[in-house]
Amino acid sequence: MAMFNINTHRFDPYKNFKFRVKWDGKYIPGISKISPLTRITETVTHREGGDPSNFRVSPGTTNFEPIVLERGLSHDTEFENWANMVFNLNGDAAMSLKNYKKDIIIDLFNLQGTKVMAFIVHRCWVSEYQSLPELDANGKCIAIEKIVLQHEGWERDTAIGEPQET
User: Fold this and answer.
1) pLDDT at 147 exceeding the cut of 70
2) Which of 61, 26, 58, 57 is nearest to 41 (CA)?
3) Fewer CB within 10 Å: C terminus or N terminus of the chain?
4) Could you count the other beta carbons within 10 Å of the beta carbon of residue 51?
């Protein structure tokens, strides 16, 4: 059975290193890592009174795990600007109740750079902002800034189908 409907010659799945993240209608530069999109549905167990040795399992509340975005530290202020919409040194009045939640789009590309999938993550907001990593004079690492996004779920953009590969 083929994994791909259009490109039946293809056996290898898509790679995880060609992606971009978009919010406010533009791609955010430098994002190097995104945590997985994960949802967890709790289980509800119950028994019938006449049959105490058996139980039934049904779905309960679904929760969406936070998403972590990381990128190398630069002079681009998109992470900080968004984080400042939730907390600002100027006080509560500086918080933007209108703009602090945004939808983001995560685009996945094949090795040719063609978009093959997109996921829309709904009503995200920054719950954690790391402006500087641990600094180490003996280290050999890139300085990484990070945001943690709480959100209200995600869905795959079904308008983006499998492209014909050449």
Assistant:
1) yes
2) 61
3) N
4) 9
Q: What is the pTM of this model?
A: 0.87
DSSP H helices, the chain, are 78-83
Domain boundaries, the chain: 19-36+65-156
Which residue is associated with the tokens 């990381």?
Answer: 70
Widest CA span in the chain:
69
Mean pLDDT on 67-87: 94
DSSP string computed for 85-122: TT--TT-GGGS-TTTS-EEEEEEEE-TTS-EEEEEEEE
Q: How far apart are CA 141 and CA 132, in angstroms?
A: 13
Q: Would you give the distance in Å from CA 93 to the centre of its chain?
A: 29
CA 105 to CA 27: how far, in whole Å?
Answer: 9
Q: State which CATH number among 2.30.110.20, 2.60.40.10, 3.20.20.70, 3.40.50.880 fits the domain covering 19-36+65-156.
A: 2.30.110.20
At 83 the three-state DSSP class reads helix
Q: Cβ(162)–Cβ(112) under 8 Å?
A: no
The 10s digit of each residue's pLDDT in 93-118 is: 667 778 899 999 999 999 889 999 99
